[in-house]
Amino acid sequence: MPDIPLAPVDSLHITTLIDNVSDALLQDQGPAKRAGFGDGEPPQLRAAFLDRTLADMPLAEHGFSALVTLSKDHKEHRFLFDAGITPDGLSENMRKLRLDPKDIEAIVLSHGHFDHTTGLDGFVRAVGRPNLPVMIHPEFWSQRRVAIPGREPFELPSTSKSALVDAGFEIIENRQPSFLFEDSLLVTGEVDRTTEFETGFPVHQALRNGEWQPDPLILDDQALIAHVRDKGLVILTGCGHSGIVNIVRYARKLTGVDEVYAVLGGFHLSGPVFEPIIPATCEALAAFAPEVVVPAHCTGWRAVHALAATLPGAFIQNSVGTRFEL
Hints:
Elements lengths: L10 E8 L13 E2 L10 E2 L8 E2 L9 E8 L2 E7 L7 H8 L9 E3 L11 H8 L5 E4 L7 E3 L7 E3 L4 H7 L2 E4 L4 E3 L4 E3 L16 E5 L2 E4 L9 E5 L3 E6 L6 H12 L4 E7 L11 H11 L3 E5 L4 H10 L12 E3 L1
Parallel strand pairs: 6-7, 7-8, 8-11, 17-18, 18-19
Antiparallel strand pairs: 1-5, 1-20, 2-20, 3-4, 5-6, 9-10, 9-14, 12-13, 13-16, 14-15, 16-17
Helix pairs in contact: 1-2, 5-6
């Protein structure tokens, strides 16, 4: 595949709207600007047993969502990457962070799992009829379940295509890479699987032709790529089911840009199935020499700590409300 001419942007801001962690005591760190108890003028809450109001802080939940703002040629564009796991978590956290959902120009959904999509419910109620493009992979709509040996399979809720269309969204399905905002942002589409150790989720299944079949690769998993001028690639993932090393390799292959500036999002290294590949993942990520690494959501405690030890100068802990100025 020839290099895709991804146009550099002047800057990129990524604000964490939904993640598994909230920590109001974190301090600013490099490009990470924190939303703390005393920062700015957050909305206020009253509580029956307190003698004054307190900051209405954003809440954590098991899921992921980010607001991405790019600046190029003195123009700004904003879009939403994923939407979290509860109907109102996304819209409420945006309200608490004083971010207007009506400023969003497009939505990219990393894959079809419900912990990345459910917040579209509250988003629609906050903005009315959105008339926005939603960019997905065609297998986004698959019915899926997790079938752990010895346990009853757990079927995952799936998103209704007709409901999204009826709400006013324009659905754009693409297996191949696609651009947003004048060739400034690249949605990977289906990611090449090239590592030996990132082999997918073995207990994951999809309903095809009326039968549950193995679906370990979760092919609808896609990521976002930007090229920040004079710095390198910024890569944002939802869960990283494709394998975070596969994703970074693919980003470099697609763009022809070798410099990896920042890697942020879910790396899906949590639990006994994935923990054995943590050392290989850390080693491979370190070889890319990123300046910023922000493991989030489903990366898992052990992997987060291993990444922090392997890349101490690049590692930044994520938290809901953090704005990364890249």
